[in-house]
Amino acid sequence: MPAYYLGLMSGTSADAIDVALVDFSTQPRLLAACAYPLPDDYRTAVLTLSQSQAPVYPQQLAELDQYAAELFAQAVHHLLQQTEIKLEQIQAIGSHGQTLYHQPKVAKQRAYTWQIGDPSRIAYLTGITTVADFRRHDMAAGGQGAPLAPAFHQAVFSDAQRKRAVVNIGGIANITVLIPQQTVTGFDTGTGNALLDAWCWQHRQQRFDAQGQWAASAPHDAKLLARLLDDDYFHLPPPKSTGRDYFQLQWLQQKIGQQTHAPATVQATLAQLTATSISQAIQAHAMDELLVCGGGVHNRHLMNLLRQHNPTLAIHSTAHYGVDPDWLEAMCFAWLAKQRLAGQPTNLPSVTGASKAVLLGGIY
After folding, report:
1. Is 155 in the same domain as 303?
2. Is the domain of 79 the same as that of 49?
3. Which residues on neighbouring strands pair with residue 127, listed in sequence order?
4. Contact in structure between 32 and 83 (CB atoms under 8 Å)
5. Cis peptide before 119 (omega within 30 of 0)
6. Which of 13, 166, 194, 272 could crosslink 153 through cysteines, CB 3.0-4.6 Å?
7. Element (H, E) at 245
8. C-alpha–C-alpha distance, residues 175 and 157, integer Å
């Protein structure tokens, strides 16, 4: 019998809603997928409100929460209209939502994370049981609430012989370390595409640096790179997680200070920052193989930098093992919904630092 689930994911880049239709009757099988574009007014609101110094009004947040839900529901209908699968055949939707803020516990501050996209409205507008709010139960148990993908990476990519790292390069980059006979570990390595995209937009009015061509056009600045890497986040031991509300243009400008750099030089340095922070995480574990997914896999310059930093490592897209790198994260949330309905805990305390394994997600 088919076991159809939908995964919805809008990442820190806030460029589209990734929708994945997955059949879990045997091994996870992607049946259909699409990237549903986000309206400019929505994207502007998300990127503005997720900045730490942004003025925020409750009415804005409440309305944006509903707007997000409507867009998620529209994305579901859009994908299913392209298939022969009917709404009533879908077991559940796993909706990550759109992250505005993510702050794990620091000192005496309370930990919090906030993903908008009202799941009650998604469930009503689609008629499909919706599982959402995946992060906060882990945080209630003392965890980081992120990353969540390592459990799915373990289910799909673990190997009895080879030591594999899986790196998702979205707005934020995260790593999963899969070593035979050892507990799975993983964490957010730092900025992935977030600063690259933001700097490219600020100076070229382009949403991303296609294949990293602009970054490849100039040498990076070694002193600036050292200042960026000197940030406290890169020296924190795992478990750790972060978000766009931390790695933002204000953070970059503080690091640049009064120094003057050509915009292309900064872009080149940001590419090195992403590649170096990922590589430092990989090299701490002496891996055999690196599997890459997320939007960063299409950045040719960034992939070349990873190969330069890790010359002895076999580096592949996750497509090498039959999982499309563009849809892996949306597939993950479909899987998390399936596990939640089955009553299976899916946080990994060894990754998030939670005190115990817990069920993730509320059912709507």
Report:
1. yes
2. yes
3. none
4. yes
5. no
6. 166
7. none
8. 13
